[in-house]
Protein backbone atom coordinates (compact mmCIF):
# COMPACT_ATOMS: atom_id res chain seq x y z
CA UNK A 1 0.00 0.00 0.00
CA UNK A 2 1.18 3.48 -0.89
CA UNK A 3 -0.40 6.82 -0.14
CA UNK A 4 -0.06 10.41 -1.31
CA UNK A 5 -1.43 13.51 0.39
CA UNK A 6 -2.04 16.47 -1.91
CA UNK A 7 -3.72 19.84 -1.61
CA UNK A 8 -2.39 20.74 1.84
CA UNK A 9 -2.86 22.98 3.69
CA UNK A 10 -6.05 24.43 2.22
CA UNK A 11 -7.77 21.44 0.58
CA UNK A 12 -6.09 18.24 1.71
CA UNK A 13 -6.87 15.06 -0.21
CA UNK A 14 -5.63 11.50 0.38
CA UNK A 15 -4.95 9.08 -2.48
CA UNK A 16 -4.19 5.45 -1.60
CA UNK A 17 -2.75 2.89 -4.03
CA UNK A 18 -3.80 -0.66 -3.14
CA UNK A 19 -2.29 -3.92 -4.32
CA UNK A 20 -4.50 -6.95 -4.92
CA UNK A 21 -6.23 -8.00 -1.69
CA UNK A 22 -5.30 -4.85 0.24
CA UNK A 23 -7.93 -2.75 2.00
CA UNK A 24 -8.38 0.72 3.51
CA UNK A 25 -10.93 1.85 6.11
CA UNK A 26 -12.46 5.29 5.64
CA UNK A 27 -14.96 7.59 7.29
CA UNK A 28 -18.36 6.93 5.70
CA UNK A 29 -18.98 9.17 2.69
CA UNK A 30 -15.35 10.31 2.37
CA UNK A 31 -14.60 8.61 -0.98
CA UNK A 32 -14.27 11.14 -3.82
CA UNK A 33 -13.03 8.86 -6.66
CA UNK A 34 -11.76 5.29 -7.07
CA UNK A 35 -10.91 2.53 -9.50
CA UNK A 36 -13.99 0.67 -10.71
CA UNK A 37 -12.87 -2.76 -9.47
CA UNK A 38 -12.63 -1.82 -5.77
CA UNK A 39 -15.19 -3.54 -3.57
CA UNK A 40 -17.06 -1.75 -0.79
CA UNK A 41 -18.14 -3.24 2.54
CA UNK A 42 -19.37 -1.58 5.74
CA UNK A 43 -18.06 -2.28 9.21
CA UNK A 44 -18.97 -1.46 12.81
CA UNK A 45 -15.58 -1.02 14.53
CA UNK A 46 -15.79 -2.13 18.13
CA UNK A 47 -19.30 -3.53 17.65
CA UNK A 48 -22.73 -1.93 17.52
CA UNK A 49 -22.68 -0.35 20.99
CA UNK A 50 -19.40 1.51 20.56
CA UNK A 51 -20.32 2.56 17.01
CA UNK A 52 -23.69 3.87 18.23
CA UNK A 53 -21.96 5.91 20.95
CA UNK A 54 -19.64 7.49 18.37
CA UNK A 55 -22.65 8.37 16.21
CA UNK A 56 -25.01 9.69 18.89
CA UNK A 57 -22.68 11.78 21.03
CA UNK A 58 -19.32 11.82 19.28
CA UNK A 59 -20.25 13.22 15.88
CA UNK A 60 -18.71 10.29 13.99
CA UNK A 61 -20.46 8.06 11.46
CA UNK A 62 -22.02 4.84 12.71
CA UNK A 63 -20.29 2.77 10.00
CA UNK A 64 -16.78 2.64 8.62
CA UNK A 65 -16.37 1.99 4.88
CA UNK A 66 -13.90 -0.73 3.86
CA UNK A 67 -12.57 -0.63 0.28
CA UNK A 68 -10.74 -3.73 -0.99
CA UNK A 69 -8.85 -4.07 -4.28
CA UNK A 70 -9.51 -7.19 -6.38
CA UNK A 71 -6.58 -6.05 -8.51
CA UNK A 72 -4.24 -3.05 -8.10
CA UNK A 73 -6.15 0.23 -7.97
CA UNK A 74 -6.47 3.63 -6.29
CA UNK A 75 -8.96 5.45 -4.12
CA UNK A 76 -9.02 9.14 -3.18
CA UNK A 77 -10.52 10.27 0.10
CA UNK A 78 -11.54 13.83 0.96
CA UNK A 79 -12.64 15.24 4.33
CA UNK A 80 -15.90 17.15 4.64
CA UNK A 81 -14.26 20.43 5.68
CA UNK A 82 -11.42 22.25 3.86
CA UNK A 83 -8.03 21.93 5.49
CA UNK A 84 -5.03 19.71 6.16
CA UNK A 85 -4.86 15.93 5.94
CA UNK A 86 -2.21 14.28 8.12
CA UNK A 87 -0.77 10.78 8.54
CA UNK A 88 0.49 9.17 11.74
CA UNK A 89 2.13 5.75 11.83
CA UNK A 90 1.09 3.86 14.95
CA UNK A 91 3.48 1.21 16.25
CA UNK A 92 1.58 -0.25 19.15
CA UNK A 93 0.87 3.21 20.58
CA UNK A 94 -2.26 5.34 20.30
CA UNK A 95 -3.56 8.80 19.43
CA UNK A 96 -6.61 10.66 20.70
CA UNK A 97 -8.75 12.53 18.16
CA UNK A 98 -11.57 15.02 18.61
CA UNK A 99 -14.98 14.42 17.02
CA UNK A 100 -14.90 14.57 13.23
CA UNK A 101 -11.09 14.37 12.89
CA UNK A 102 -10.88 10.71 11.79
CA UNK A 103 -10.53 10.26 8.02
CA UNK A 104 -9.08 6.79 7.28
CA UNK A 105 -6.79 4.03 8.55
CA UNK A 106 -5.31 0.71 7.59
CA UNK A 107 -7.41 -2.31 8.67
CA UNK A 108 -6.79 -3.63 12.13
CA UNK A 109 -6.46 -0.41 14.07
CA UNK A 110 -8.78 -0.14 17.05
CA UNK A 111 -11.12 2.87 16.99
CA UNK A 112 -12.55 3.22 20.48
CA UNK A 113 -14.81 5.97 21.90
CA UNK A 114 -13.59 7.71 25.05
CA UNK A 115 -15.70 9.94 27.29
CA UNK A 116 -14.34 13.48 27.33
CA UNK A 117 -15.68 14.45 30.76
CA UNK A 118 -18.74 16.40 31.86
CA UNK A 119 -17.35 19.76 30.74
CA UNK A 120 -16.96 18.43 27.21
CA UNK A 121 -20.77 18.82 26.89
CA UNK A 122 -20.13 22.57 26.63
CA UNK A 123 -16.70 22.60 25.02
CA UNK A 124 -17.78 22.48 21.36
CA UNK A 125 -15.50 19.52 20.72
CA UNK A 126 -17.81 16.57 21.29
CA UNK A 127 -18.73 14.59 24.38
CA UNK A 128 -16.98 11.48 23.08
CA UNK A 129 -13.44 11.45 21.73
CA UNK A 130 -11.83 8.69 19.66
CA UNK A 131 -8.75 6.70 20.61
CA UNK A 132 -6.99 5.06 17.67
CA UNK A 133 -4.49 2.38 18.66
CA UNK A 134 -2.57 -0.59 17.30
CA UNK A 135 -0.26 -1.14 14.34
CA UNK A 136 -0.82 0.74 11.09
CA UNK A 137 -1.36 4.10 9.42
CA UNK A 138 -3.89 6.61 10.74
CA UNK A 139 -5.11 9.54 8.64
CA UNK A 140 -6.90 12.49 10.18
CA UNK A 141 -7.96 15.95 9.08
CA UNK A 142 -8.21 19.47 10.40
CA UNK A 143 -10.14 22.62 9.51
CA UNK A 144 -7.54 24.99 8.05
CA UNK A 145 -3.81 24.52 8.53
CA UNK A 146 -2.19 22.48 11.30
CA UNK A 147 0.28 23.46 13.99
CA UNK A 148 2.03 20.63 15.82
CA UNK A 149 3.12 21.68 19.30
CA UNK A 150 5.52 19.78 21.52
CA UNK A 151 4.40 20.16 25.13
CA UNK A 152 6.83 20.00 28.03
CA UNK A 153 5.01 21.26 31.06
CA UNK A 154 1.63 22.75 30.14
CA UNK A 155 -0.19 24.38 27.24
CA UNK A 156 -3.61 26.08 27.13
CA UNK A 157 -5.61 25.84 23.90
CA UNK A 158 -9.09 26.94 22.86
CA UNK A 159 -11.17 23.75 22.64
CA UNK A 160 -12.27 24.43 19.06
CA UNK A 161 -8.68 24.40 17.81
CA UNK A 162 -7.73 20.95 19.15
CA UNK A 163 -7.46 18.10 16.61
CA UNK A 164 -5.58 15.37 18.47
CA UNK A 165 -2.90 14.57 21.02
CA UNK A 166 -0.67 11.83 22.34
CA UNK A 167 -1.98 9.92 25.39
CA UNK A 168 1.20 10.73 27.31
CA UNK A 169 -0.44 14.12 27.89
CA UNK A 170 -3.01 14.64 30.60
CA UNK A 171 -5.69 17.26 30.02
CA UNK A 172 -8.52 19.08 31.68
CA UNK A 173 -11.28 21.31 30.33
CA UNK A 174 -11.75 24.52 32.29
CA UNK A 175 -12.94 28.10 32.09
CA UNK A 176 -10.71 30.96 31.01
CA UNK A 177 -10.07 32.52 34.42
CA UNK A 178 -13.11 33.26 36.59
CA UNK A 179 -16.78 33.10 35.64
CA UNK A 180 -16.79 36.67 34.26
CA UNK A 181 -13.81 36.00 32.00
CA UNK A 182 -15.26 32.68 30.84
CA UNK A 183 -18.65 34.19 29.94
CA UNK A 184 -17.61 37.53 28.46
CA UNK A 185 -14.07 37.21 27.12
CA UNK A 186 -15.21 35.35 24.00
CA UNK A 187 -12.85 32.48 24.82
CA UNK A 188 -15.28 30.19 26.68
CA UNK A 189 -13.77 26.85 27.73
CA UNK A 190 -10.17 25.89 27.09
CA UNK A 191 -8.15 22.68 27.30
CA UNK A 192 -5.04 22.62 29.43
CA UNK A 193 -2.56 19.91 28.44
CA UNK A 194 -0.01 18.79 31.01
CA UNK A 195 3.03 16.55 30.77
CA UNK A 196 5.19 15.70 27.78
CA UNK A 197 3.94 14.89 24.29
CA UNK A 198 2.64 16.35 21.05
CA UNK A 199 -0.68 18.02 20.32
CA UNK A 200 -2.09 18.90 16.87
CA UNK A 201 -4.01 22.17 16.51
CA UNK A 202 -6.08 23.53 13.63
CA UNK A 203 -5.69 27.17 12.64
CA UNK A 204 -9.43 27.70 12.08
CA UNK A 205 -12.43 27.17 14.36
CA UNK A 206 -15.63 25.77 12.77
CA UNK A 207 -17.99 27.48 15.22
CA UNK A 208 -16.18 30.81 14.89
CA UNK A 209 -16.38 30.71 11.08
CA UNK A 210 -20.06 29.76 11.27
CA UNK A 211 -20.69 32.73 13.57
CA UNK A 212 -18.84 35.07 11.21
CA UNK A 213 -20.98 33.87 8.27
CA UNK A 214 -24.35 34.04 10.06
CA UNK A 215 -25.05 37.78 9.46
CA UNK A 216 -24.49 37.28 5.73
CA UNK A 217 -26.90 34.31 5.55
CA UNK A 218 -29.96 36.03 7.02
CA UNK A 219 -32.42 37.96 4.96
Short description:
The protein is mostly beta strands. It is built from three helices and 15 strands. The protein has a single domain (2-217), classed as Mitochondrial biogenesis AIM24 (Double-stranded beta-helix), CATH 3.60.160.10.
Q: Can you give a write-up of this model?
A:
- It is a single chain.
- The protein has one domain: Mitochondrial biogenesis AIM24 (Double-stranded beta-helix).
- The strands form two sheets. Strands 3, 5, 6, 8, 9, 10, 11, 12, 13, 14 and 15 form an eleven-stranded antiparallel β-sheet that branches. It has a four-stranded antiparallel β-sheet with strand order 1-2-7-4, with no helix packed on it.
- With 219 residues, the chain is mainly beta.
- It has three helices and 15 strands.
- About 6% of the residues have low confidence.
- The N and C termini lie far apart (50 Å).
Secondary structure: elements and pairs:
Elements: E1 2-6, E2 13-18, E3 23-27, E4 31-34, E5 38-43, H1 47-57, E6 64-69, E7 73-77, E8 85-97, E9 102-105, E10 110-115, E11 128-141, E12 146-158, E13 162-165, E14 169-175, H2 179-184, E15 189-202, H3 206-217
Antiparallel strand pairs: 1-2, 2-7, 3-6, 3-9, 4-7, 5-6, 8-11, 8-13, 9-11, 10-11, 12-15, 13-15, 14-15
Amino acid sequence: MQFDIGGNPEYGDLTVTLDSGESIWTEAGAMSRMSSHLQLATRLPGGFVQSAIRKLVGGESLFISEYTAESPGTISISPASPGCVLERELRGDSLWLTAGAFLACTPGLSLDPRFGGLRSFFSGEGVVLMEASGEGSLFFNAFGGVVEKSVEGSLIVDTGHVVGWEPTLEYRIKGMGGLKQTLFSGEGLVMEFMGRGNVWLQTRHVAAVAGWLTPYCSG
